[in-house]
Amino acid sequence: MENRVCSTESVNGSCDVWSCQKSAAASADHLVIMVHGILGSNADWKFGAEQFVRTLPDKVFVHCSEKNMFRLTLDGVDVMGERLAEEVLEVIQRKQNLRKISFVAHSVGGLVARYAIGRLYRPPKKENVADSTDGTNEDDIKATIGGLEPMNFITVATPHLGSRGNKQVPFLFGVTAFEKAARLLIHWIFKRTGRHLFLTDDDEGNAPLLKRMIEDYGDCFFMSALCIFKRRVAYSNVGYDHIVGWRTSSIRRNYELPKWEDNMNKEYPHIVYEERCKARDAEQSELISTEDDGSDKLEEELVAGLSRVSWEKVDVSFHASRQRFAAHSVIQVKDEMMHMEGADVIRHMIDHFLL
């Protein structure tokens, strides 16, 4: 059988996926790190990982993360990010022929991946390329992620702006009283991660972690790392995602949400809108923020900060799907029942993957 997939699972639960064809596996030099969401596991990306390898057998080696599974996802975005960074370095050390790296992350896993790349960022050794000699290694004049060339940073239904704003957690129905109560009680359910998501953390008097993550902070180069990826992509559910709202997952303000109802994509039926957003400088962001009325100030700072880099925004709708009420999982194609519904999202991801 062509493009058969081989996989192995470690004692700790991590899962590597690669082509069974030896020649293809030997030439695969692009590491794809797949990160699951809250209370999830490496199995959540099983279908996606296999589709990547089947389609790109001689290009990619996929690693589904295991360091933050199940209840460990409640330890906080920073703690999980440290674990993920360590795990990525272990994979790189184990597989010596890797040259490139990409991340594909679901839900809170997108925030964890953003933290991890801030840790994995390595600045160029030669700051002034003009002064470099002919003998200078090209890797020395480029910033890297763990020593590898950063390519695609892809998030799927990730709450980039947190979960505290109006309608950012849709199952609270946009009721202000419910949203305020959730902000006070969330840590009882989702522990430290809940505090980070609702921006109620103030460790040692610092700003909330998500705010710190829109700049280089201390020894974590969050924005420098995000900047050096060739592509940054945000896949978002336009509705029926009861866990992560459309605004926070697509890094938009209310008035920036597009009209999608009349946009149909024959090749990818569930993708209803695509937008390439150029990077905005601080001056442009300030101008936009003054025009926006009624938005949460902290949320506005997160939008402006993340908009300093370019994003490809892909909006997804499962409104006509029988499994629409599980959109948060369907967009990831989490299990066998969802393969028929969300497979085109994975296919779109692979077809546009920069190699």
Count of individual domains? 1
Approximately how much beta-strand content do the residues carry? Answer: 15-25%
The CATH architecture is 3-Layer(aba) Sandwich
Any idea what the CATH superfamily is called? Alpha/Beta hydrolase fold, catalytic domain
GO biological process, one term: lipid metabolic process
Domain DUF676: 27-248
Protein name: DUF676 domain-containing protein
InterPro entries: AB_hydrolase_fold, DUF676_lipase-like, Lipase-like
Describe this structure in words.
- The chain has one domain (5-126, 140-351): 3-Layer(aba) Sandwich (Rossmann fold), CATH 3.40.50.
- Helices cover 34% and strands 18% of the residues.
- It has helices spanning 22-27, 46-55, 77-94, 108-120, 176-197, 209-212, 222-227, 246-250, 282-291, 297-306, 327-330, 339-351, and strands spanning 5-9, 15-19, 30-35, 60-64, 100-106, 121-122, 144-145, 149-156, 216-217, 220-221, 231-237, 271-277, 311-316.
- The strands form 3 sheets. Strands 1-2-4-3-5-8-11-13-12 form a 9-stranded mixed beta sheet, with helices on both faces. It has a two-stranded antiparallel sheet with strand order 6-7.
- Strand 3 (30-35), helix 2 and strand 4 form a beta-alpha-beta unit.
